Structure formats: structure tokens, C-alpha cells
Amino acid sequence: MTRIKAQAPISSSEEDVDNGPVVSCKDAVITYGVTTAVDGLSFDAFAGRVLAILGPNGAGKTSTVEALEGYRIPSHGSIRVLGYDPAKNSKALSARIGVMLQDGGIHPMMSPIEATRLFTKYYGDSLSSDEIIQLAGLEDVAKRPYKKLSGGEKQRLSLGLALTGRPEVVFLDEPTAGVDPQGRLGIREIITRLKEQGACIILTTHELPEAERLADEVLILNKGKNIMQGSMHELLSLGSKGTNTIRLRTTLPLDMTLLAKAVGLDLSEVAEELPGSYLIKATGTPERIVAITTFLASMNIAIDSLTSGMVSLEEIYLSLIGGEANDG
User: Fold this and answer.
1) pLDDT given at position 310
2) Predicted TM-score (pTM) of this structure
3) Which has more confidence, 1 or 224?
4) How far apart are CA 69 and CA 323, in angstroms?
5) What is the DSSP letter of 141?
6) Sheet of 277-280: strands edge to edge?
7) Which domains are assigned to the chain?
8) Number of H helices and number of E strands within the chain?
9) Which of 26, 179, 238, 279 lies at a C-alpha separation of 20 to 30 Å from 151?
10) How many Cα atoms sit within 13 Å of 5 on the Cβ side?
11) Cα separations (Å) of 102 from 159, 271, 308?
12) Are 144 and 111 in contact (CB under 8 A)?
């Protein structure tokens, strides 16, 4: 198994982050002319945790992440990444952070093996080209031109390239967009491994069920302001009072008619929210939970997660944001 180890801390006179947040944003304001994109935003992110930044079009997500990466300078407030001001210390940070873009920016005729060999030259202590290819699960297409890769293969290559320098802070933009279910499992495994090895991960995604799977902490923005922040457990628990639902995620898709029959409900009372993600509109009694697990055992299908009385992150998000598009 390839280890994405953190580099040794760089000696500096900047603030110590060993026992504090790895990423810190305090009262940040970002403006474009007369438009305020980020308005007094404050939050922290920690090593070994995934922070999902969510919000509708124009919420300030992109501006916030670009400031964390050093591409935007706030007009007020402060931003620190690994103790540094990213706008003033890009050279010190460049070897310690990894950035995954939704559009990988790879030449259409460049193969994964060529791209990874190129990226390893940018770092003094990097994963090898073969390690990146293996990490991203691209062994079978390593010599295929980028333009002939599937959407999921392009995403996995982009993620692999972002991890080339063994980063301590990783910025992921839509990591599972266009990825098939098997590929998503691989990306989730990589992110889980990064967490276990102490990386701080900042995730932006339009796919709220995916954010619910991956994130430890959630920050919801709207019109440049923080409207909700907390751990995933806190948010889901807060929104779950008085609900009578069962949420089920499985490693393989289910036949909805068979699922409804197994739990003794009408077909209208079960819904497939996403492939492998199901909502059962009923109280999670012990008998019903046993019926679900017995049904899955008979189909030889494993449970990814099973919760009772819990609303989804998507439901909480929509209750806060309303019908605004989540694509900004």
C-alpha cells in the first residue's frame, strides 16, 4: 500500500500549528470591485479531518478556496495554512499542499504515465510515477492518451497528481464527479487513507450525498456568509428530531420492489435517492431493521451504512438554502 506521508515541518517563525488548526480563516472579506464575495468568514480545519465547504452559486466557495491556496488576497481578515499566509508564502507552501481541480488541465495526448513522471519532477520528495498510477488505479490505462480516458479515469488521475508531493493539506474540487460507483469507492478509500495519515482535506462538491459520506465537518455558505457549521454528526442529529425514516446505503444496487416487499411496505414508501442510497419512509423498529439485514444477507449485498431517524445532509442543506442551484 502506497503511503502518502507528510513532509517534515518547515522551520519558521510563523505560528505553531502542531496542536491547533492546520487551516484557519478569521473574519475574511474578499471583494471584486463593489461585489463582496466573502463577508466576514471564519472557520478552522484540522489534521486528519475532511471539511466540506458547500453552498449555492455565488456563495463564495471558490473565492474562499482560492484564498486558501494563495490565489486571492482578502481585503480584510487573515488566512493561515500550516501557519503561513498563503498569498505571501506560496513558495514555502507549494511543496506541502495538493490541489485537485475538476478540470485536470492535462494535454489531451499526454498519457497518465507521462503526466505522473512530469509531476514528480516538481517535488524534492514525491511519490514515484508507479506509486501514483497504482494509487489512482490507472494501471490498465497508464499509456492511454488523456483524451481517451473516461471521466472517472481523468478524475482519478487528477487526484493522483494532487497527491504527488505527499501533501499535508489537500484541496479537492468535485473529486467524484463523473466517476462510476466502483471508482467512487476507490476515491473514498484514498481520502480515508489520507485522513488516517494525518492530512487535512478541504472538499468542495455539488454532490451532497457524497459530502455526507466523506466529510467530518461541514461549512455551508450563502452570499459570502457562514450560515451553518459543525461536525457531520451534529448537523444530522440537529435535523433528525421527529423524523421517522431509515436511510440505507449498500455496496450494490437493490431492486426497489424486492426491498419494499422485504420490509413490508408499499413501493411508494421506498425511494432510491442515488445508486446504492435508499430512503425508507418508516420507523426503524428492531423488526424492520432485522428484515432489512436479512434481505441483504439473502442477496449477498453488504451494508455501507444504515441509520434510523436521520435526515440527510441534502435535506438540511435545502432547508437552509431553499431552491438555489448548488453549483458555485
Assistant:
1) 64
2) 0.75
3) 224
4) 30
5) G
6) 270-274, 277-280, 246-250, 303-308
7) 23-236 (3.40.50.300), 244-309 (3.30.70)
8) 11, 13
9) 279
10) 9
11) 9, 30, 34
12) yes
Residues 59, 222: contact at Cβ < 8 Å?
Answer: yes
Do residues 303 and 249 lie in contact, with contact meaning Cβ atoms separated by under 8 Å? yes
Q: What is the pLDDT of residues 200-234, one digit of tens each?
A: 999 998 888 889 889 999 999 999 999 999 998 88
Instruction: Tell me how far CA of residue 31 lies from CA of 24, 28, 36, 43, 88, in angstroms.
Output: 19, 10, 4, 18, 18
Distance, in Å, from the CA atom of 288 to the CA atom of 274, rounded to the nearest integer, reads 22
Q: Length of the chain in residues, anyone?
A: 328
Kindly state the greatest CA–CA separation across the chain. Answer: 65
Q: Which of 267, 269, 290 is nearest to 280 (CA)?
A: 269
Which cell numbers hold the place of 276? 446504492
For residues 295 and 117, what is the distance between their CA atoms, to the nearest angstrom? 48
Pairwise CA distance, residues 328 & 323, whole Å: 14
Instruction: Give per-residue pLDDT as tens, 117-152.
Output: 999 999 888 999 999 999 999 999 999 999 999 888
Cβ neighbours of residue 231 under 8 Å, at least 6 residues apart? 216, 217, 218
Placement of cell 488566512 in the chain: 79
Smallest Cα–Cα separation from 224: which of 53, 82, 85, 69? 53
User: Is the distance from CB of 86 to CB of 73 less than 8 angstroms?
Assistant: no
